[in-house]
Design goal:
Blueprint lengths: L6 H20 L6 E9 L5 E7 L4 E8 L9 E11 L2 E6 L7 E5 L10 E6 L6 E3 L1 E3 L1 H6 L4 E7 L5 E7 H7 L5
Parallel strand pairs: 1-8
Antiparallel strand pairs: 1-2, 1-10, 2-5, 3-4, 3-7, 4-6, 7-9, 10-11
Length: 176
């Protein structure tokens, strides 16, 4: 049986496939972001995780020590929701048991002059949240009803801002 495809066309096709595979293998893949992580505090100063899920789901959250050195990014707390969080707002105390949440790693004591990061994730790595960076000094400046989160401007610049929970609910998901 004879093929109707010419050799030059076939070679170009094979070459395009090889280039595509090479590009896919060398490019960094990231988990798509569809939620926004934040922090708040209770009336008695306890740290709260805050998660605004924009449209898909988040299964849990992890708090770790921020570091450019991956070996120094130590997890200091991790929580799994009893049911996947779907579109909307969720909050939970980070330092005590919470209804609807299981601590997969109880919160370790936080220390001054250390930068922490909270982010949300899914068990299958299909979705994630943006991260919020903070120190104990940032936490101490929070008041109940306020949320600190990373705001991404229209030009892509990221900065930490603090807003009311109501404003967080309306601003955190830019396309909703």
């Amino acid at each position: 049986m004879w093929s109707t495809t010419s050799r030059p066309v076939f070679r170009r096709f094979v070459g395009a496939v090889v280039v595509g595979v090479a590009l896919a293998a060398t490019s960094g893949c990231t988990v798509p972001v569809d939620a926004v992580a934040g922090i708040s505090v209770t009336g008695d100063g306890h740290l709260l995780g805050v998660m605004m899920v924009c449209g898909h789901q988040i299964d849990g959250a992890t708090l770790y020590v921020d570091s450019d050195d991956v070996d120094k990014q130590v997890t200091v707390g991790s929580w799994t929701a009893d049911r996947p969080l779907t579109a909307g707002l969720a909050t939970w105390p980070l330092d005590s048991p919470a209804t609807g949440w299981a601590a997969t790693r109880s919160l370790a004591p936080l220390t001054a002059k250390t930068s922490y990061v909270l982010y949300g994730w899914t068990k299958d790595d299909s979705w994630s949240s943006s991260s919020v960076f903070f120190t104990l000094a940032d936490r101490d400046r929070l008041t109940p009803g306020k949320v600190r989160y990373a705001n991404i401007s229209d030009n892509g610049d990221e900065s930490a801002i603090t807003v009311s929970i109501a404003e967080f609910k309306t601003r955190a998901c830019p396309n909703t």
